[in-house]
């Protein structure tokens, strides 16, 4: 009997397709005095003329993206800075979600914020209705041209489009070492049952050596717990299907519905199983004290763990020099569904909200929705871990196999795609009780029923 039964829901498709022109390229035969080339730089500025001369201005950007993932973002602003004369001041914080609200309350917002939860955007618009500026004209035009309609909807509140899509990611991945799998004769599983069978086989083969099938970490500053919410979201898609997932997100069924409880039980069969976790890091409770950045690293330490479920962007957290490829040091496989044909996909992304309508802020928000930025960001991320849903992104600029695989999965219209549930829920739940209760579930062994009841009680 299958541990997970097959159910179908309505597909929600986010496409990453098409080709775009790479504008941020060496100027080649351009002469130093060419009007279309940034002074002292090598960027073709023709596409930036629409933004005008912004010399002497500064745009502040506040995000949850910290080292080592921050530098590619900073590097991707160089063409905009060279061609417009503006300066972009980047600040990343692990306490972003809490501190952004503090800054808004104090009347000290950043010019631009990368908001990873549409639910948080709804909260901000509701609590600080005059703080967020509607998306700039150039931003609207770019999103209408280069993004699937669903992405615009995630940044819209009460009919007003505020926040434009930035990066996209695929969350339904399991990281592993291809060499270690080959050495042990392990095959990549294609169904959930095969995944559990593989976990049991690893226990049988390696328990005496202190090695475990899985390692995990859910620590993330004030956002601790979010990786555990991703686990539950992926399992809701696999045990209940897309229609139930949508009902859960919209609170058309309670958070403690039996179908959600079933999915949490499946997550617990891995994350709260002492035989399965936490390879190289400790017992079950160590998952809560281990940062998500460190959670998968034991895969590279003599195979102290064999698998780590984490999103495509985790590629940026492997140590410098790690070969992330199908025949390299680490790679990822799709987190299987109930059968090989049923392949639901969980994804996420960030959204660019502006808190000022100054010309330089409007221009920078528009730049972040352009093919020029998507391609510059791809080139600035040679180690991988980033992809965009912008149709103007040239896939050739995605040098990482994992990013190419992510783009392929996102572009597959047969996939049942769903956006991260906690990011869509009201902030009090999605960026609040859901995080803290899943942390208590791990750290304090809080029961499944008590966790789900507490989250349900937090729903506004």
UniProtKB/TrEMBL annotation:
Q: Does the keyword Nucleotide-binding apply?
A: no
Q: InterPro entries from the xrefs? A: Bact_solute-bd_prot1 (IPR050490)
Signal peptide range: 1-28
Top-level taxonomic group: Bacteria
**Mind listing the UniProt keywords for this protein, alphabetically?**
Signal, Transport
Give the family from UniProt. Answer: Belongs to the bacterial solute-binding protein 1 family.
Database matches in PANTHER family: ARABINOSE-BINDING PROTEIN-RELATED (PTHR43649), OSMOPROTECTIVE COMPOUNDS-BINDING PROTEIN GGTB (PTHR43649:SF29)
Tell me the protein's name: Alpha-glucoside ABC transporter substrate-binding protein
């Amino acid at each position: 009997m299958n541990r997970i039964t097959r159910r179908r829901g309505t597909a929600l498709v986010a496409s990453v397709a098409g080709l775009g022109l790479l504008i941020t390229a060496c100027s080649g035969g351009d002469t130093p005095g060419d009007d279309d080339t940034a002074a002292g730089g090598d960027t073709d500025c023709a596409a930036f003329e629409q933004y005008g001369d912004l010399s002497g201005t500064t745009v502040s950007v506040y995000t949850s993206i910290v080292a080592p993932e921050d530098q590619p973002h900073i590097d991707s602003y160089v063409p905009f800075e060279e061609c417009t004369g503006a300066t972009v001041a980047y600040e990343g914080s692990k306490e972003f979600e809490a501190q952004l609200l503090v800054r808004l309350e104090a009347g000290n917002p950043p010019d631009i914020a990368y908001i990873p939860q549409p639910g948080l955007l709804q909260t901000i618009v509701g609590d600080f209705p005059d703080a967020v500026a509607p998306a700039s004209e150039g931003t609207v035009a770019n999103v209408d041209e280069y993004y699937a309609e669903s992405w615009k909807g995630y940044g819209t509140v009460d009919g007003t489009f505020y926040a434009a899509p930035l990066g996209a990611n695929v969350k339904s991945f399991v990281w592993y070492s291809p060499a270690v799998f080959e050495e042990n004769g392990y095959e990549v599983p294609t169904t959930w049952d095969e995944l559990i069978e593989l976990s049991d086989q690893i226990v049988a083969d390696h328990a005496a050596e202190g090695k475990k099938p899985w390692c995990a970490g859910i620590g993330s500053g004030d956002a601790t717990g979010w990786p555990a919410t991703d686990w539950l979201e992926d399992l809701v898609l696999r045990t209940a299907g897309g229609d139930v997932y949508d009902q859960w997100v919209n609170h058309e069924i309670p958070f403690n519905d039996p179908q959600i409880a079933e999915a949490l039980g499946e997550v617990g069969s891995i994350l709260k199983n002492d035989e399965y976790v936490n390879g190289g890091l400790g017992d079950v409770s160590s998952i809560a004290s281990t940062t998500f950045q460190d959670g998968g690293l034991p895969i590279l330490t003599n195979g102290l763990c064999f698998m780590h479920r984490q999103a495509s962007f985790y590629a940026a957290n492997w140590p410098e020099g790690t070969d992330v490829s199908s025949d390299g040091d680490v790679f990822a496989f799709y987190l299987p569904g109930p059968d090989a044909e049923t392949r639901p996909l969980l994804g996420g992304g960030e959204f660019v909200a502006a808190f000022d309508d100054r010309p330089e802020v409007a221009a920078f928000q528009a730049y972040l929705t352009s093919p020029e930025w998507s391609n510059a960001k791809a080139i600035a991320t040679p180690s991988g871990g980033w992809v965009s849903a912008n149709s103007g992104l040239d896939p050739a600029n995605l040098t990482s196999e994992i990013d190419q695989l992510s783009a392929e999965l996102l572009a597959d219209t047969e996939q049942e795609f769903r956006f991260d549930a906690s990011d869509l829920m009201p902030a009090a739940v999605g960026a609040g009780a859901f995080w803290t209760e899943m942390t208590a579930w791990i750290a304090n062994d809080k029961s499944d029923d008590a966790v789900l009841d507490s989250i349900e009680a937090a729903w506004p």
